[in-house]
Amino acid sequence: MANTVAAGRRRSASSRYRWQRRARSAGLVLLSLFVLAYTLFPYYWAIVSSFRSGSQLLSSSLIPSFDLVHYKALLVDPVFVGSIINSLIVAGSTTIISLVLAAAAAYALGRLNFTGRQAMLMAILVVSIFPQIAVMSGMFELVRWFGLYNRVGSLVLAYLIFTVPFTVWVLTSFMREFPRELEEAAIMDGCSHWRILTRILLPLMGPALASTGLLAFILAWNEFLFALTFILSDENRTVPVAIGLISGNSRYEYPFGPVMAASIIVTLPLLVLVLIFQRRIVSGLTAGAVKG
């Protein structure tokens, strides 16, 4: 009799545990779906709105009408197409220069022992904390002194202010993960520090360079304040400013459809880069998470 009662209690406890586990799993699934819908709905609404024009913009339907009038108008607009090219030049140049400077700085800060290394790292961190508006006047004077005002090169110079500190910090953390035996063996073979960096460490940092470079590219691609301040002419403007200056057919019309279509077009290069470097990005973001 006692065995029967104990077996019944065990079955009841096991059934209750299974029910609780299923309830937790269902709750996590519902929460994940809610977060996913909350995150993706604004982008889906932007896609739906980009295919609408006129009175269709006032409709609350979630089904797009697939009217390409806004896309056609933007793709034949030389100012908008030129702004995309300018953004590619600025973001690409900023990313390449940032990675070159950050790789050298990260090797010095992460692998070499010298006086003031921690102070230099803290200085780089402090520089990255400053808001853009705080350094606007100083950057404006630098841009004028170099003769880059209203030129694409002014944006490259300005964007390095926030991309270099970010890339230095990230690459320094990756650089510290490599075993010291790599350098010791290379030094015994007569390699210089530059050769160790370029021939040994950088090939191993492919995932880190891909993930860090993509984030730096996105920062430069989406920047608005410096691009609005340092560029005056339409032929030198970047995409964020070009989107902000899109106007309607009259002063009372807000160009919601064209702005959404431009936003979708601008997002495509970033999606292509993410898809191309997807594996390296995941490897770079998870590198160093598990040791041993």
Layout of secondary structure:
Layout: H1 2-50, H2 69-75, H3 78-111, H4 117-129, H5 136-145, H6 152-175, H7 180-188, H8 193-204, H9 206-222, H10 225-230, H11 239-244, H12 256-276, H13 278-286
Polypeptide structure, described:
By secondary structure, the chain is an all-alpha fold. The protein contains 13 helices and no strands. Helix 3 packs parallel to helix 6 and helix 9 packs across helix 13. The C terminus is likely disordered.
What percentage of the residues does DSSP assign to strands (E)? under 5%
Rg (C-alpha, Å): 26 Å
Give the biggest beta sheet. none
**Low-confidence region ranges:** 288-292
Q: Helicity range of the residues?
A: over 70%
Give the overall average pLDDT. 82
What's the tally of helices? Answer: 13
Instruction: Report how far apart the termini are.
Output: 53 Å
Computed structural class: mainly alpha
The gist of it:
The protein is an all-alpha fold and 292 residues long. It contains 13 helices and no strands.
Task: Name the features.
74% helix, 292 residues, mainly alpha, 13 helices
